[in-house]
Design goal:
alpha/beta; six-stranded mixed β-sheet; binds adenosine-5'-triphosphate; membrane
């Protein structure tokens, strides 16, 4: 439904030109929650803001349901933009207006009648769990409640796409979870496609179906979130995943090891874990499990074991190959000492 083709966004300064987005091609499917992750300066905001033309791309196309929005201007662009809602890290509410007036503002801007606005605003506030807060001003709300107003406002005109710009970065962990749960619910019940940018892998793990990892304006890796957790290719993707899986083996353990250290991913099936005992019987290697845990990625279990394999190097290589072929992935963390 959203096709980004060879998109580039350059910022031209007096002395130099910065490529915020550098030749990005991506397809975002209808009804999915798509995450774009990267460190500061990777180009996430630039890419997201091109999707509703808050930034004008330098080159490339953005097709939304087949319409290239980069070609639109004036009334046509305003009309197309109504299909795309957006929420922000710092909410961007109008402080002098009540919650009801903030949400009504989006409907007014779209030319909706007074009757329709009066009918729609309470509906939207109920949807985000703020049915009793209509007369409050933003200053009287918590961060999570402010973001709920932002979500109600973004959904006012029944968009097909919701863009989320670091929507939970200013919130504490428990409020973050409640806002992510609301976004998930909106995606499920209203079928709205959600594109979110974040620098937190926890957010991705919690709600995204697919993700793209950005670095220096480019997408360096993309795919199904479970697949990327199980089989990351790029070092940067691994770094992000490590922030969630928290694998740091004590230095002492690394120093004292005798064998090859491997990390094995299991697709959560107990049967797969039998592979390890099978290997120990089949090959002449000794194995010590040093660490094990199960993470839930989108409610699907991903088991992770760290093992030390001790034995003849050829035999270890055969054992590794055997495990690799029968599990969700194996990574050699350190060769035999
Ligand atoms: N308006 C602008 N003028 C000039 N350069 C810009 C502008 N906006 C972004 N850039 C540059 O484009 C690159 C990508 O920035 P962008 O804000 O898109 O990254 P980001 O991944 O969203 O980072 P952050 O999370 O810090 O916002 C950076 O090098 C940034 O300095």
């Amino acid at each position: 439904m959203i096709e980004i083709q060879q998109l580039t966004k350059e910022y031209r300064g007096k002395k130099s030109t910065v490529k915020g987005v550098d030749d990005v091609t991506l397809t975002i499917k209808k009804g999915e929650i798509f995450g774009i992750i990267g460190y500061s300066g990777a180009g996430k905001s630039s890419l997201l803001r091109c999707l509703n033309m808050l930034e004008t791309p330098t080159s490339g196309k953005i097709l939304i349901d087949g319409v290239d929005i980069t070609k639109l201007k004036g009334k046509d662009l305003r009309h197309e933009r109504l299909k795309i809602g957006m929420i922000f890290q710092h909410f961007h509410l109008i402080s002098s207006k009540t919650v009801t007036q903030n949400v009504a503002f989006a409907l007014k801007a779209a030319g909706k009648s007074k009757e329709e606005i009066e009918r729609r605003v309470p509906e939207l506030l109920d949807l985000v769990g703020l049915g009793d807060k209509g007369h409050h001003y933003p200053a009287q709300l918590s961060g999570g409640q402010k973001q709920r107003v932002g979500i109600a406002r973004a959904l006012a005109n029944n968009p097909k796409v919701l863009l989320c710009d670091e929507a939970t970065s200013a919130l504490d962990p428990s409020t973050t979870r409640s806002i992510l749960a609301l976004l998930k619910e909106i995606n499920r019940t209203l079928g709205i496609t959600i594109v979110l940018i974040t620098h937190e892998m926890e957010v991705v793990k919690e709600i995204c179906h697919r993700i793209a990892v950005m670095q220096n304006g480019k997408v360096i890796e993309s795919g199904d979130v479970y697949e990327l957790f199980a089989r990351p290719v790029q070092p940067l993707t691994r770094d992000f995943i490590d922030t969630v899986l928290h694998f740091s083996l004590p230095d002492k353990l690394l120093e004292n090891r005798r064998g090859t250290l491997v990390k094995i991913n299991f697709q959560g099936e107990i049967a797969e874990k039998a592979v390890v005992s099978e290997v120990l019987k089949k090959f002449n290697v000794e194995g010590n499990i040093l660490h094990g845990k199960i993470e839930y990625i989108q409610d699907e279990p991903l088991g992770i074991f760290i093992m030390e394999l001790i034995g003849d190097s050829q035999e270890i290589a055969r054992a590794i190959e055997h495990i690799r072929q029968r599990t969700a992935g194996l990574e050699v963390l350190a060769d035999a000492a």
